[in-house]
Amino acid sequence: MIVHFAISKVERHLFFNIIYSQVPFNHNLILMVCFSCCILLNLDLIKFIFVSINQTFMDTNILVIGACGQIGTELTQALRKRYGNTRVVASDIKAGPEALMESGPFEILDATNKVAIEKCIETYQITDVYLMAAMLSATGEKYPQMAWDLNINSLSHLLDIARDKKIKKLFWPSSIAVFGPTTPKHDTPQHTITEPTTVYGISKLTGERWCEYFNRKYGVDVRSIRYPGIISWKTLPGGGTTDYAVDIYHKAIEEGSYECFLTENTYLPMMYMEDAIKATMDIMQAKAEDIKIRSSYNLSAMSFSPKEVYEAIKEELPTFSIRYQPDFRQEIADSWPSSIDDSRATTDWGWQPSYDLKSMTKEMLFQLKQKAKEA
Ligand code: AKB
Known about the structure:
Blueprint: H1 2-6, H2 9-20, H3 25-41, H4 43-57, E1 62-65, H5 70-83, E2 88-92, H6 98-102, E3 106-108, H7 114-123, E4 128-131, H8 137-142, H9 144-163, E5 169-171, E6 174-175, H10 199-218, E7 221-223, E8 225-227, E9 229-231, H11 244-254, E10 257-260, E11 268-272, H12 273-285, E12 297-298, E13 302-304, H13 306-316, E14 321-324, H14 329-334, H15 343-349, H16 357-374
């Protein structure tokens, strides 16, 4: 008991790191015995020894900033599955789902507070950061200055931290929002006109230029993809223009009808969450020399309109109905591409999506029906 209370949060983190680590069992046993002996001898010594062990055996410790958001929640769980629960620190500005906060370390962290981020990185000996905190397109238009401050300052802090060699690798998501009304709309190429009209798009485009600059000038290993609209059943998105494509499934199950804020023929690039998580983890695991684009990769899986997703749902739920009531988000959607050419991601690091509209619709409806039954 006395020993338990004498161990700090960091030492507990390292202790569980050893238990759950993927080093061979006999090594694990030796480390555990060493650890126990050290506790009885000297606490400072413990820290030193376990910091060294941690660096030797476990070379990846991850921090997810914005872990309670739509992508952050599922990304954190997937990373914990792959790297071990204690090696993935989840953080957000406020508390999130219990499952996420209880399955591994969780810290309250403001993505614009550089000092707090650095402290967290030092405490947990973080090597890789996934910066998922952002204000999306629709909310960004309501609070342009806040969107700019959050999206730009958080990235700028992390790039500085990476330049100062305090972390090894940074993942930062960009978006199809970097494109604008002057961009070729169909099969939008990787390198093309980028004149975004939303503050979100402007911040993402600026971020892309910063990433490439920090890579070229300081050798920072930053990796990025331009997410399309992401569809998932576990966590709701917040403040985006593509949010309708998630909401429509929820409303189909809960109410049997949906009022859509985009017109029926507005085509946008979309992706199922499982594919988005796979892409994010794959680009981070790829060899550094294979990541040839250091601004951000085009990424795509499918393209559909509200009418097409409605028809796909109706095949499964024949009484489902829809009404179209476009609002200010229509103008944003009209400025974005309807489909994306992501061939560079395929050539450089092997990107391949698994879900199309039909398979995603089946999976979404199945999972949401299960969830409704369990509630
Ligand atoms: C949004 O709609 O703002 C986001 C995005 C496409 O980046 N989902």
